[in-house]
UniProtKB/TrEMBL annotation:
Gene3D superfamilies: alpha/beta hydrolase. InterPro entries: AB_hydrolase, AB_hydrolase_1, AB_hydrolase_fold. Residues 32-286 form the AB hydrolase-1 domain. GO terms for molecular function: hydrolase activity. This is Alpha/beta hydrolase. Keywords: Hydrolase.
Amino acid sequence: MNQTVEQAEIRLSGGLRLHVRTAGPPDAAVTVVLLHGWVLDGRTWHRQVRPLAKVARVVTYDARGHGRSGGIDRRAATLDHLGDDLAEVLDAVAPDQPVVLAGHSLGGMTIMEYAHRHPAHFADRIAGLLLLSTTAEGHTHTVYGLPPRLAHLVRLAEMTSAHMLARMGDWRPHRALALALRPSLRWLLFGQPCDPADVQLTTKAVVRASLGSIGGFRPSVGAQARLETLAALPTVPTAVLVGERDRLTPPACSLSIAKALPGAALTICPDAGHMLMLERPDVVTAALLDLVEAAHDRRRRA
């Protein structure tokens, strides 16, 4: 069975170029689409791709303004654009197959925005759902592991700097900044235990993101409110995973999501942080394999 990861590009209707990676047999009965987090890229799913490619076609892509995909201006750095992009990607990579969608952090928010803006498309195409270390309530529960008053000051500073960064377009910082950022990202994004190679991969992705993307998406992300959208979704097999020590999307975020989605299986991973696909790869992969199997069963019954 083909597990070679192939690189390609998709041109969206507006002309934007997205970098896409695919693995697994092109004629597989189920396609799995993996969406990465804010200022990251599709490589963060590398530990899931090969196991999944044994039973499904697997697609990852770098969101607009991230990784190897095309840059954007700040007016296009919004969740509604990401939701529309996902609809186009699904039409391009899996026009006929049922799809299992998995979204980490911003990727999960993208899925919710896609479902909100394209409900009939979602109902027709999606056969399984994994929401990983994400939120449906913007920054409501985010306190960065700090006392609330200090977290409020940090958020004000973050929003101010985001507006400044949004004006810097496609400019990317020098890679030497990665060394300075690594300890902060280790504290913010990871729990225990932590593989230094995972921190290095994550840091490289952050440094590769344009400053316009880093700052531009912040207002849209903070203002998101999609619990009602989740409650209205058609019933599909759904797993919700979060790390016990997640400082960006703490367990309260996933508890709200699971409450809005009756029947969703909620897993809180002890001592883990925000980067569950790297920190707890076996748990994440097992959840995805279960969803693929459920999608196969649903297809056979149909």
